[in-house]
Automatic annotation (TrEMBL):
Signal peptide stretch: none
PROSITE patterns assigned: PROKAR_LIPOPROTEIN, TPR
InterPro entries: TPR-like_helical_dom_sf, TPR_rpt
Keyword Chloroplast: no
Native organism taxonomy: Bacteria, Pseudomonadati, Pseudomonadota, Alphaproteobacteria, Rhodobacterales
Entry keyword set: TPR repeat
Record flagged with keyword Transferase: no
Protein known as: Flp pilus assembly protein TadD
């Protein structure tokens, strides 16, 4: 009788052991899947940021052939196409991402950005309008400002630029865009102030330096601003000022600025040399 009583115990023990094995296998499988998922996510991030853009496009397309509905691969392809400057393809790719059931508001912001890159301003505006106003990010308001600029809705543009600048720790690009908006409106003083602000946040932003010189030149102020610049940048800014002066009829001043550009540049400055020769040939 004692031996018989051991049978249920052995059966129970065997079942428990089997259950433990199954539980252990499930845990191992979950761990493996977690590692695979992490590795895939890391590889996707690498492809979207530091890999060669065309190689990244090929990588994501290969993966989409196998898993066409996976949004991480769709998103990776769209971002890689933007990096590869294949904007028309990128806009179509972002449209697919935006239509995906798992799409986020940030995906729709990226879609609007892609549409702006290909000149689809009205469609971009519609995409942005469909995003809830409670979704407040730097990129969203920067694009809103650009759309308002395109529509010549200046008050809205100013409000959006101001909001965007407050939502980032690196607002130099926003101030530069805002300044260029003011420049196109003929508000040269306002543009000058904004370009100066952009340079304050990023002393290496040459676009803002060049735009600042344009704003000053438009006011017939042909002195270079007191800002950090390399000898090459100084020569290029003299060249910009010279062309601005010549277009406004201040030809003699323009000639002097071209000569300053030639003298300042650490190497041969062919555009300035050719412009000066052309002016002297005209007398």
């Amino acid at each position: 009788m004692r031996h018989l009583s051991l049978i249920p115990i052995c059966v129970i023990s065997a079942l428990a052991l089997s259950g433990c094995q199954r539980a252990g296998e499930a845990e191992v499988e979950r761990a493996v899947q977690d590692v695979i998922s992490t590795d895939e996510s890391n590889l996707n991030d690498i492809m979207m940021t530091v890999a060669d853009p065309d190689e990244a496009v090929a990588y994501f397309r290969r993966n989409l052939d196998q898993q066409p509905e996976k949004i991480s691969f769709q998103r990776g392809l769209a971002k890689s196409l933007i990096r590869a400057k294949r904007n028309t393809e990128a806009a179509s790719a972002w449209a697919r991402v935006a239509d995906h059931p798992e799409a986020t508001h940030e995906d729709r912001v990226d879609y609007a950005d892609a549409l702006i890159r290909v000149g689809e301003w009205d469609k971009a505006e519609g995409v942005l309008d469909a995003i809830p106003p409670t979704y407040e990010t730097y990129r969203r308001y920067r694009l809103e400002a650009m759309v308002a600029d395109a529509n010549k809705e200046w008050a809205k543009a100013d409000s959006f630029y101001d909001t965007a600048a407050g939502l980032t720790t690196k607002p130099s690009g926003v101030f530069n865009n805002w300044g260029y908006s003011k420049l196109t409106r003929g508000d040269y003083k306002g543009a000058e102030r904004l370009f100066t602000e952009a340079i304050t946040y990023d002393p290496g932003l040459f676009t803002a330096k060049n735009n600042l010189v344009l704003a000053r030149g438009a006011q017939r102020n042909y002195d270079l601003p007191v800002i950090q610049m390399t000898p090459t940048e100084r020569a290029q800014l003299y060249h910009t000022l010279a062309l601005t002066a010549i277009k406004q009829g201040d030809v003699s001043i323009g000639k002097g600025l071209l000569q300053d550009a030639i003298d300042t540049h650490p190497q041969h400055f062919d555009p300035a040399v050719r412009a000066l020769k052309a002016l002297e040939a005209r007398g």
